[in-house]
């Protein structure tokens, strides 16, 4: 009798216990789902458009490396802070192949499919302009570390860490006038390259305004590898300086051919030159070119950046990596400033936040995406690149 009663009493208890366990499991499951969902929400998506194939692949690699380096620093601290909630920075790198058409497709994919809040990249002006058009229509901020074309200024959703071609051209003209004795200059530029055409024309206008002489102003078609026709015309005018506002691959061919044809003067270059390649070429001894950054500059935080970058990447930072690092970190600062991952709000943050103290200098975007920055003139001397001059253009 007692045994039967005990069995009858224990049955409801077992049912209650089973129900309690089931409830706990359901709460845990729902909590897990909620946690997973929170993790997905707590991400900050960044698109990276860089040329990682073709003749400009090294520049694209610099951009990807630097954005990843910046993201790792932020993520090591828990992520970018948005209203007290840490959001992990997630990168979506794509290869533009150096093509504006491909860059356009990639930008659309990043915005519409991957839902990125911002895009960083554009190693060339033509690619940057293509991305800028997409970002303007979609109202997504775009930051380019190095594209200097003046045309980018018209896009309100586009920002840059570099100076513009107007600033660069004026600085080069000033340097030649004041430091190279206003010698006669010849120019060889790419007729089908918007960056090259713009910078060559702006330099010509500035130099002539300064009283300088442009002895020759020659161009070549895209895809050319032989420049004898143009170089012979140039050398016939006996210039002391040859300005080559072209990318490094083309410049190396042009310099070698110019030397073979008898040019003994100074080569003058722009921010499209990559000193890593030029130092291997004897033709560039005693050449000058513009830079956006220079190792060892007395800028707060620069020494720490250089040391840490080398420690984590095994190589010294390049100019483009320093610029890209500043692009990424100024972006994260803007996100924190406005407490939002919304693209339009981030745009407002980039415009309204206080000047950003970066490793390439302190800058703000002046309501038009163009920072006020110094132009550094580098000199290839004794197998090294040394700082020759610093010019500020008002």
Structure notes:
- It comes from Maridesulfovibrio ferrireducens.
- Belongs to the leucine-binding protein family.
- This is Branched-chain amino acid transport system substrate-binding protein.
- Keywords: Signal.
- The structure is a single chain.
- The chain is of the alpha/beta class.
- The chain folds into 2 domains: 43-163 and 296-363, Rossmann fold; 166-291 and 377-391, Rossmann fold.
- It is built from 12 helices and 15 strands.
- It has helices at residues 2-41, 57-76, 100-112, 125-138, 165-179, 194-209, 228-235, 248-260, 275-278, 302-313, 319-338, 343-352, and strands at 43-50, 80-82, 85-95, 118-121, 142-144, 158-160, 185-190, 214-220, 241-244, 266-269, 288-291, 356-358, 361-363, 375-381, 384-391.
- The strands form 3 sheets. The chain has a 7-stranded mixed β-sheet with strand order 8-7-9-10-11-14-15, sandwiched between helices.
- A hairpin with a 2-residue loop joins strand 14 and strand 15.
- It starts with a helix and ends with a strand.
